[in-house]
Amino acid sequence: MNVTQDLSIIQLVLEASLVVKLVMGLLTVVSLMSWYWIFRKWFAIREARARTERFERDFWSGGDLNTLYQSAVNDRHHTGALERIFEAGYREFTKLRGQKTLDPGTVIDGVRRAMRATYQRETDDLEAHLAFLASVGSVSPYVGLFGTVWGIMHSFRGLASMSTATLAAVAPGIAEALVATAIGLFAAIPAVVAYNRFAHDVDRVAVRFESFMEEFSNILQRQLR
């Protein structure tokens, strides 16, 4: 590499050592995957929040529970997470209420267990792939640093064959190695920001689910009196 020419990013990547190129390629693929899941989770959480708000409006508007249940059963493809929790609880309620040998406490416990199981599935679905974003955010800088260390070692080994060691001779190799760290940070920073944001949003939605479950259980308990 001519040390007098401009050290453009593309030139640095093309003229990097094989190991550094592999590191850069891996980080680029991981970055693209993280951006894919960032957009997917953003749309999924936004949709879950919108459907939760819509169902809460319908539920607290004073509508008939049977009507809400039938609507959820007949339109499964457009139901949200909170509707599915309601559906599971109300289905269990109607099934257990018909058993005369069960006391109200047992019926409500069964309803809560049914809603809790659906709640767990729904929150697991919302949290899916957040662990991947967390891993990208925590590991990518170290992978980039490995590429940088390897590239710097490769550059200094090349000085052994030179009669005079100058900064101009080693600078291109160090610069191309530092690109690996830059790519690692480029992959890590958006993943960390997205993970923190999505984890907070999922927690808020989960709190709304839990509040609804408690309030709905109280409503059903009053109907058993």
From TrEMBL:
Listed InterPro entries: ExbB/TolQ_transport, MotA_ExbB_proton_chnl, Tol-Pal_TolQ
Residue ranges constituting the MotA/TolQ/ExbB proton channel domain according to the UniProt record: 82-210
Gene Ontology CC, one term: plasma membrane
Biological processes, Gene Ontology terms: bacteriocin transport; cell division; protein import
Cleavable signal peptide: none
Membrane topology value: Multi-pass membrane protein
Subcellular location: Cell inner membrane; Cell membrane
Transmembrane segments: 18-39, 130-153, 173-195
Main location: membrane
Top-level taxon of the source organism: Bacteria
Keywords: Cell cycle, Cell division, Cell inner membrane, Cell membrane, Membrane, Transmembrane, Transmembrane helix
Entry annotated with the keyword Transmembrane helix: yes
PANTHER family attached to this UniProt entry: PROTEIN TOLQ (PTHR30625), TOL-PAL SYSTEM PROTEIN TOLQ (PTHR30625:SF3)
NCBIfam families cross-referenced by the UniProt entry: tolQ
HAMAP family per UniProt: TolQ (MF_02202)
Subunit structure: The Tol-Pal system is composed of five core proteins: the inner membrane proteins TolA, TolQ and TolR, the periplasmic protein TolB and the outer membrane protein Pal. They form a network linking the inner and outer membranes and the peptidoglycan layer.
Family: Belongs to the ExbB/TolQ family.
Function: Part of the Tol-Pal system, which plays a role in outer membrane invagination during cell division and is important for maintaining outer membrane integrity.
Name listed for the protein in its UniProt record: Tol-Pal system protein TolQ
Native source species: Sulfurisoma sediminicola
